[in-house]
Amino acid sequence: MDPEGSCIQDDPHIKVMMAGSTLRKVKSRSWKKQRHFRLLEDGMTIWYKSRWAGMGHSTFSVTEMEAVREGHQSEVLLSTAEEFPADLCFTLVFHGRQGNLDLVAETPEEAKAWIQGVRKLIHKAQNMDEKERLDQWVWDWFKKADKNKDGKMTFKEVRKLLKMMNVEMNEDHAFHLFAMADKSDSGSLEIEQFVYFYKMLTQRDEVWKVFQDYSGDGEKLMLEELENFLSMEQQEGEKSSQHAQELINRYEPSESAKKQGAMSLDGFQIYLCSQEGSIFKPELRELHQDMSQPLSHYFISSSHNTYLLEDQLRGQSSLEAYIQDVISTLKEYAFKASDFPVILSLENHCCVEQQTVMAKHIRVICGDTLLTTLLNGQVPQQLPSPQELKGKILLKAKKISGTEGSLDETLTDDISDEEEMTNHEAESLSAEEPPAGTLNHDGKKSKAKLSKELSDLVVYCKSVHFHGFEYARSYGKCSEMSSFSESKAKRLAKDTGTDFVQYHTRQLSRIYPAGRRTDSSNYNPQDMWSVGCQIVALNFQTAGLEMDLNDGLFAQNAGCGYGRNTQFSPEKPEERPGYTPMRLSIQVISGQQLPKVNQKEGSIVDPLVRVEIYGVPQDQAKEETSHINNNGFNPVWNETLNFVIHTPELALVRFEVEDYDKASRNDFMGQFTLPFTSIQAGYRHIHLLSKDGTAIPPSSLFVNISISELTRRSQI
């Protein structure tokens, strides 16, 4: 049952990969070491080791990779271009925040084989259906358990497998399942028998019970019974009838059941585990929001110093992380993820002459995509929309107001964030007090010099110092925007939150991490979104809660980097028009194949589920289940967690699974974060993500979700 099949293994490029190659792994101009790489028999795992490392080796899956770049398309390989020709070089690009792998082959033919071979494997992995993914996973486990590589598994190997799979099982029960699968009574399982063993092992009683509630004969769901399930449990209403037939056609593996217009238990489980059965409404993953509103009415995904791979002081500067992000300085990558505008925030430390050189470079690199004139040539009363700005790069920087080429502002805004940090972290000025000029060494006020060529490139994102809300109301232009350190933004949100929200109806603001965060840690972006801040810049290279929230917010709307912003008072949501609080009830039913935290043989996890709500202050909440001892494979909780959401359109819901430890801090196992408004009610699976935001199939949670308006009666 090799899911790989023979056809891909017959491919000449794949054959080269399976035979293995000695490739040079390059980390810098001085770190270039030979490693032996080869594609394993499953056609999905790449194995590599140093010839000096004895038995030690590393592996990674094809599913972890996003793309292959050919030639000198990384900063590291560019720096070694004189030593290694482009036709020997390639870069493996990984999903999430995992660092890329720069490799150099010994011959151009070998490089081509790996480049083309990996591309084919990535394409195959991306186009697997649910059944193929499961087959692949079963095959992976069989290989891991088959220690002596004889294509069979003894009971001793099965017991080790159960530990690897996070299963704590009574030995008698395990042997009983083994004996049932060993139909030839040979004392070992071949792959087909192992599949049968796996099916018995993964039998989902909780899914079977739901199936039984709607099945008349306990064997199948007839079309009308499936319609009832979709209407009653999945809250699909009128579309249940058409959708039921679509689900049978799409997910039912049995042809005879399909002919009867019915769904078997297998088909039902495959549907529930699919993207349609996931917690995230599929239609909201597509582009669905109105993109014709002014730019200030949207949250905009934004990175801070993401050319750094580590911390802010010692991290190696790299263009790699920017290329992975939507916000890229290179025309080639600016609109790969989305056609909507890219705002390039310039951190300018240059003299006037160098600024002019920089302006010329920006013009040349960006070409026609760089917006250099007003749309329609008219001075706007409000910012243009993302729709109107499609395919354009907008420069955010200082702009000359007069004709002398100098600024009547202090340097503290955004010629560089660092200078605002040093001058304004302490913030002795009140929010409403206009700034004085900067002082030179003679104690006299000085003016910052700016290149006219660079100034001319700034159209709708002119960086200005923030003079206070009253000044902004009277004199502020929609094309002017200010940057705030997180500490100043938090203070403004706390002291004058309503004014901050009002300010954002017309003007953009950018928030950046405090100067003390030299370790590239992040602040909670939700505090800023709650008062309407549009450009909340985070250190994308640092995984954790804050990036989970950012990924969760921007997962909707086709991941285009823009999300609609709503205006209200964050402290008193009940005062806004149309205020309707919602009740969210989450029955956490079970978990499936949760990842191991400790890879030590014999270690088993004690999982619990925590649900956290992030939103306006009134909505912040968290609840958790009890922990289940020694079962990461199929833990069952059947516990219900309840929440009240006062501002649904701003709330994010985060599911985190942890390994309980009574003596120390719980260990992170997996998470999933999404907007409250994107949640599908009913029986749903939550497909967990790792700490760096990548998928860890088939780890999931099975939940039943109910969402209803909170009436006075239900509050009593």
TrEMBL record:
It catalyses: a 1,2-diacyl-sn-glycero-3-phospho-(1D-myo-inositol) + H2O = 1D-myo-inositol 1-phosphate + a 1,2-diacyl-sn-glycerol + H(+); a 1,2-diacyl-sn-glycero-3-phospho-(1D-myo-inositol-4,5-bisphosphate) + H2O = 1D-myo-inositol 1,4,5-trisphosphate + a 1,2-diacyl-sn-glycerol + H(+). It is an enzyme of class 3 (hydrolase). Residues 15-123 form the PH domain. Residues 405-445 are annotated as: Disordered. It is found in: Cytoplasm; Endoplasmic reticulum; Membrane; Nucleus. Keywords: Calcium, Cytoplasm, Endoplasmic reticulum, Hydrolase, Lipid degradation, Lipid metabolism, Membrane, Metal-binding, Nucleus, Repeat, Transducer. Residues 565-690 form the C2 domain. SUPFAM superfamilies: C2 domain (Calcium/lipid-binding domain, CaLB) (SSF49562), EF-hand (SSF47473), PH domain-like (SSF50729), PLC-like phosphodiesterases (SSF51695). Gene3D superfamilies: C2 domain, EF-hand, Phosphatidylinositol (PI) phosphodiesterase, Pleckstrin-homology domain (PH domain)/Phosphotyrosine-binding domain (PTB). It is a peripheral membrane protein. One of its GO terms (biological process) is intracellular signal transduction. This is Phosphoinositide phospholipase C. It comes from Dissostichus eleginoides.
